[in-house]
Amino acid sequence: MDMVKWLLRYGLLSALLFSVNSRGEETPDNVSANKLVILNWAEYLDPELIDKFEKEFSTDISEIYFESDEHRTQILIDNHALGFDLILTSGINLEPYAHRGWIAPLSPDLIPNRAHINSKWLTAFPGAKEYGVPYFWGTTGILYRKDKIKYQITSWMNLFRPDPILKGKIGMFADGNEIISLALKALGYSLNEGSPEALAQTSALLSQQKEYVRSYQYLSLRRDSEILSGDLWMSIAYSGDALMVMEHDSHNRLNFTIPEEGTNLWVDYFTLGAKANRPDLAYAFINFLNRPDNAAQAALYTYCATPNDSAKTLLPDDYLDNPIIFPDNDVLMKSEQFRSIPPKQLKQRNLISNTLVNGGEHAPEF
Description:
This protein is α/β, with parallel strands linked by helices. It contains 18 helices and 10 strands. It folds into 2 domains: 3-137 and 267-315, Periplasmic binding protein-like II (D-Maltodextrin-Binding Protein, domain 2), CATH 3.40.190; 138-264 and 333-356, D-Maltodextrin-Binding Protein, domain 2, CATH 3.40.190.10. Strands 1, 2, 3, 4, 5, 6, 7, 8, 9 and 10 form a 10-stranded mixed sheet that branches. Helix 4 (47-57) links the parallel strand 1 and strand 2 (60-65). The longest helix is centred in the middle third of the chain and has 14 residues, at 196-209. It starts with a helix and ends in a 10-residue tail after the last helix.
C-alpha cells in the first residue's frame, strides 16, 4: 500500500494538510464531505479511471467543466476559488493563479508517483515545480477535411487568409489570446510578441478572416462533430482533440497538420486548490493518475502525449510512433510555449479579442 493511500485510509492526511483548507476554517464540508471536486476540461478524464478511483478510495468525483482558459479564470474569480480540490490549468497560468491565492504549493512527499514524470516538464513553466503535476502535453494545429480541400495545408496563412471556398466553414478557438498568438505566428512573429505594430497587423489579419469563421468555440469531439457533419471544413485543434475526432471518421476524410511556421507547445497541469475541502483526496488522485498503468490508460483515452516516462514503456507502438502525438524534432524546434504577458500588452490583446470572440465583453484580467 503506498503512503498516500495509507494516510488517507487512517484519516491522517487530512490532519497533515488541514492548513491548506479554506483559509483554515473548520466547516462541516471541510471535515465530512466525501467528494473530490475537479475543475477540468470536458472529456479529459477516462470514466473508467474515475470509477476505479472511486471504488479504490470509497469516494465520489465531481467534475466542473470550463470551456476555455478565460472561462476557467472567470469561474475562479466568481467563486473565489472556493471548494475546488483540483484545478487543471495550462502552464502559463501557474504563477498568476498562485499569486491570486487560488492554488497551493505541493508537498512532493505525498506524490511519490511524481518520480515517473520526465523532469523537463516539471520545469517547463515558472511555478511548475512548486505548484503543478504535468498531466499531458501536445501541440496546436489545423484539422481539415481533405475530401473538401484538395490542396495541401502547410501554413497558418491557409487558416488566417483562407481560400474563398472556406467562407463560413472555419472553426476557431474560444480563447481570444490563443488565436492572437497563432495569428502572430502566421505573420512571422513569436507567439509572445507584444509590440504595437505586430498587434496592429494581427488585428487586421483577424478582422479580414472573420467573415470566413463559422464559430469561435472549441471543436466538438463527439461523433456529430461539426467537422464530421460538414458544417466546418477547417478548424484549429489541439493534437489530442484532433485524434479523438479522427477516431470517429470511418471514411478517412480528415487530416491534421502542424504548420511550417511552428506552433504552440502546451502543457496541462493538475494543481491543488488553495481552498480545497479535501486536499487528502486531491493528493491521492494525483498520485493515482501517475501510477504508470493508470497514466498509460489515460494517454490512450485522450490521445495526448504523456509526460510519464514509466507509462510510455507500457504503451503500444502505434501510440509512441504517432507523429501527431509525438512530433519530430524539427516541429518541436520551431514551436514555442506561451509566456506571461505584461499587463499593458494583455489589455491590447483583450481589445482585439473582445469584438472577435467575446461579443464585446471583456475577457477576465488578473
